[in-house]
């Protein structure tokens, strides 16, 4: 796949609207264990305003999905966690928080680079490489979401990744120039607020259609592994109401997969 930087990207950031409340209450640390850990602790003890964010230059214990570590060199990338209260969102619909965060970061990266996709559930891919990871952690109240922490790690200016990371990439490795992290932060806040407000206004169909239209490998046959490591061919057809990945497998049946139940062969 051909990966190209967009041509007009240095100048037109001015056209991006400012967020009204997302990222306005901003808690900054030069260094912290993990912005997600801090944010989860904060919402458990206090009631920070909707859209509050914790942002840092460096995490000593950055958290990824399924207990993985999130790598990011000092000051090179966006490391931020936002706190929201989507309290009318049902627990059964919590995947929409993955959808809105994936769409927001996709929009931002697409400002600089073409052909950006969301790899289910919400990794941001440039070609076959991962440019961003998002860790959504929810606190439930009965059948509803009391609060959510949306932690975003977006590789902006990093050029040398540790050799043991499977397929990392940064935006600047494609554009060829460094990008100000603060600009990226404002842009992410604005797009996240846009999609969060769509969710608050129950625009579920719109969000789902947007997500599916950006989904990595949708309607393409490719190789996957199941939870016992068995390799199979599949074609992603969509997501089910719980956000599980739906895939047609080579005998024609459509199966739903949870997060730990499928691996992408890349
Ligand atoms: C993934 O594994 O893909 C999710 C990575 C999420 C990393 C971000 S960096 C900012 C925030 N703080 C964390 O500890 N994790 C998230």
Structural summary, described in words:
With 266 residues, the protein is α+β, with helices and mostly antiparallel strands. The protein contains five helices and twelve strands. Strands 1-2-3-7-6-5-4 form a seven-stranded mixed sheet, with helices on both faces. Helix 2 (95-112) packs antiparallel against helix 4 (181-200) and helix 2 (95-112) crosses helix 5. The longest helix is centred in the C-terminal third of the chain and has 20 residues, at 181-200. The model has no long low-confidence stretch (mean pLDDT 95). The structure holds biotin.
Question: Which short descriptors sum up this protein?
Answer:
alpha+beta; binds biotin; 266 residues; 5 helices; seven-stranded mixed beta sheet
| Amino- and carboxy-terminal Cα gap | 13 Å
**Number of separate strands:** 12
Which value, in Å, is the CA radius of gyration? Answer: 18 Å
Tell me the number of helical segments per DSSP (H or I, 4 or more residues long): 5
| N-to-C SSE string, H for helix and E for strand | EHEEHEEEEHHHEEEEE
The computed structural class is alpha+beta
Shape: globular
Overall average pLDDT: 95
Helix content: 10-25%
β-strand amount: 25-35%
**Small-molecule binders:** biotin
Q: How many strands, which pairing sense, and closed or not: the largest β-sheet?
A: 7 strands, mixed
């Amino acid at each position: 796949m051909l990966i190209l930087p967009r041509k007009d990207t240095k100048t037109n950031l001015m056209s991006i609207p400012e967020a009204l409340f997302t990222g306005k209450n901003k808690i900054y640390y030069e260094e912290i264990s993990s912005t997600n850990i801090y944010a989860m602790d904060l919402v458990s003890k206090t009631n920070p305003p909707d859209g509050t964010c914790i942002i840092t230059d460096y995490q000593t214990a950055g958290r990824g999905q399924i207990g993985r570590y999130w790598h990011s060199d000092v000051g090179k990338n966006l490391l931020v966690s936002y706190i929201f209260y989507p309290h009318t969102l049902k627990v059964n619909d919590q995947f929409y928080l993955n959808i809105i965060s994936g769409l927001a970061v996709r929009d931002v990266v697409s400002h600089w680079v073409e052909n950006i996709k969301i790899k289910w559930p919400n990794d941001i891919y440039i070609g076959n490489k991962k440019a961003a990871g998002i860790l959504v952690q929810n606190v439930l109240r009965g059948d509803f979401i009391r609060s959510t922490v949306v932690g975003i790690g977006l590789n902006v200016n990093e050029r040398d990744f540790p050799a043991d990371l499977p397929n990392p990439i940064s935006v600047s490795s494609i554009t060829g120039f460094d990008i100000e992290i603060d600009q990226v932060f404002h842009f992410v806040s604005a797009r996240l607020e846009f999609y969060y407000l769509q969710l608050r206004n129950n625009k579920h169909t719109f969000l789902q259609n947007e997500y599916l239209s950006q989904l990595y490998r949708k309607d393409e046959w490719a190789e996957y592994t199941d939870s016992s490591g068995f390799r199979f061919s599949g074609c992603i057809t969509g997501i089910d109401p719980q956000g599980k990945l739906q895939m047609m497998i080579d005998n024609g049946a459509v199966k739903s997969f949870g997060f730990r139940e499928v691996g992408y062969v890349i």
